[in-house]
Amino acid sequence: MNQLQATQPHFVRCTVPNSLKKPGKLDIPLVLDQLRCNGVLEGIRIARLGYLNRLPFAEFRQRYEVLTPGVIPRGYMDGRKASTKMIDSLDLDPAIYEIGTSKVFFKAGVLADLEEKRDAHLFDVFSWFQADARMFSARRQMRKVLNRNNAIYTLLFPSCDSSDYDCDCDCEFEARED
């Protein structure tokens, strides 16, 4: 059992649906016997009782540290301690996770919830970054337009030192109304 819990097996089991090898016929006792002998039913039973998802400390920290900013200090910190601090700051119920010697174990659905939180947080961060980049680009474009406008004004009215159009000098500037 310890070896089974320490691994993450990924496999495909082929079963013979019937002894006649004819399509469309299913011999249920034969299939159940094959699944029982191969240990598939036992593996399913164990998975239903226990923790379905396992992540090594380093992977957990790398993936979900964005959800807990400022919790882990800069520099090296033991993976177990870092994971414990992160989980404490996420306010997870102790019944839905276990911290092992090298991995964090989660019950069904917990990792999916963390992924949704992570995706929402990253969406907010990237949206903010995109808005900031668009603002910078729009301001730069507006600055170009204003500089061109000032250059045209300077060419049209070289004697006027004022950069605005409401100057009091004798330049005879009249704003066009469109």
TrEMBL record:
Pfam families to which the protein is assigned, alphabetical: Myosin_head
Entry keywords, A to Z: Actin-binding, ATP-binding, Coiled coil, Motor protein, Myosin, Nucleotide-binding
GO cellular component: cytoplasm; membrane; myosin complex
Keyword Transport tagged: no
Gene3D superfamilies attached to this UniProt entry: 1.20.5.4820, Kinesin motor domain
Stored PROSITE patterns: MYOSIN_MOTOR (PS51456)
Protein's GO biological process: actin filament organization
SUPFAM superfamilies (alphabetical): P-loop containing nucleoside triphosphate hydrolases
UniProt-recorded name of the protein: Myosin motor domain-containing protein
Organism: Calocera viscosa (strain TUFC12733)
